[in-house]
Prior knowledge:
This protein has helices spanning about 5-15, 75-80, 85-90, 145-150, 215, 335-340, and strands at about 20, 30-35, 45-50, 70-75, 85, 90-95, 100-105, 110-115, 125-130, 135-145, 155, 165-175, 180-195, 200-210, 220-230, 235-245, 255, 265-270, 275-280, 295-300, 305, 315-320, 330-335, 345-350, 355-360, 375-380, 385-390, 410, 415-420, 425-430, 435-445, 450-455. It is mainly beta and about 450 residues long. It has a domain at about 135-455: Neuraminidase (6 Propeller). A five-stranded mixed sheet has the order 5-31-30-29-28, with no helix packed on it. A hairpin with a 5-residue loop joins strand 9 and strand 10 (about 135-145).
Amino acid sequence: MKKHFMTTLKALFAFGIMTVSFTGCSDDDTPNAQVGEPGTENNRWITVAGSLQGSAAGSVAGDGNGGMVVYAISEEDAKNPEKEFSIFAEGFLVPSQRTSRVYTSTDGNTLYAIPYNGDNGGIFSRYKIGGGKNYSEEGARVNLTPYVTNAPRWGKLYDNDKTGVANNIAGVANKFDANNVYQYTRGTANTIAIDLQNPQIKTNQTFEIKLTPEEEIKGHYVFRMDSPTLNKAGDKLFIGTWMRKADPVTGNVNQATFDRLGSKTIVVDYPSLTNPKVITSTVSHGDTSGYRSLNSFLSDDGFVYQATSRDQSGGHILRIGQNNEYDNSYVFNLDTALGLKGVTVENWKYAGNGIAYLMYSHENATVSSLTNQPQSFLARVDFNSRTATQVNLPYDIDMYFFQHQGILVYGDNVYIPLSPIGKDGNIYVINRRSGVVTKGAKLKNVAGAQFVGAF
Length: 455
């Protein structure tokens, strides 16, 4: 690393606290505010995360199977293109066989992590962030594996850092009647609420996920559930789904393309996690679970907006109303908006005022010979005008965003660490109101690795 945090602190004390534009102020605040010490409100820690290539035979660049490294950079340094950070060489390795899924507290001072798979998979931990590689474990670890296995999908709710929700579907099996006639394929859903402040399991519920008889007799079933999101009233929790289909004759899972029957979301009462029901969009037919990140967000207008993947009718942004049902009058086709075919949303974040930033690929994207994956892109999306525009960045065929976990929105700025797989990159800072992009700190990379988020 070219410069260190102590250098910055000494300079501040030697020459006085400098004033810069404060990105966290509202329209009514003074446009300039003092930069505080790193880790304070005016100079928040930004955790940059990266994933390493797996070490096993047959591993591929960008597979993320070598674990996750995190490094805390002050907001001031993150915006400075003269700064350079080597997070893979100097960062903190989050204990995980594969990539851990992480979130941070609203103030940026605490990291929450649940590793995925391996001996420590499914173990919730929290860490105090002290800058750089300084992540100190605090509080009790919570073993979630008896409830959601060692490979849970989880998300932090937007409830002032109170709750995380983890999900798993287990025991997927076929049902035949006494005459050996296929009836349905179902799994058992396990959903738990985690107390983030006093680490423990608050609520645990188990239930079957039933579709309509017409859907089930054709073999449709929920394979995965993920991306928990609270409604505006705070009394319903929406959980996205990833659908699969079994062959009603043999019961074998049909991995090939199949005709999907609407995008689906599981709705449960909150905080009890009871009374599950499935709601279905007639606008879209894609999956709504996301992959490594949250895939739906509560907007200022009271609607919950949700993105789709593997959508046979084109990528969509869907919305759920305050009646807790899909608003099928709202049609936002990303294929149409971007002038592309087969748009798949890989990761996205709501930035406020109807604007979001969205990582995506599409059917005709060039496939990288390094990763064997199609190239990814970033778009600025407007929910109100239902338009989407590709953000002007130095794109590369080896840019692969499918495993990205986090886009940080703080004040008026959006922070996104980007680079091609195995190549150096930068933190890009985007003004969420104007859309203006500036290049921030340089990020040194290593072979096969990628930056997967800012938190």
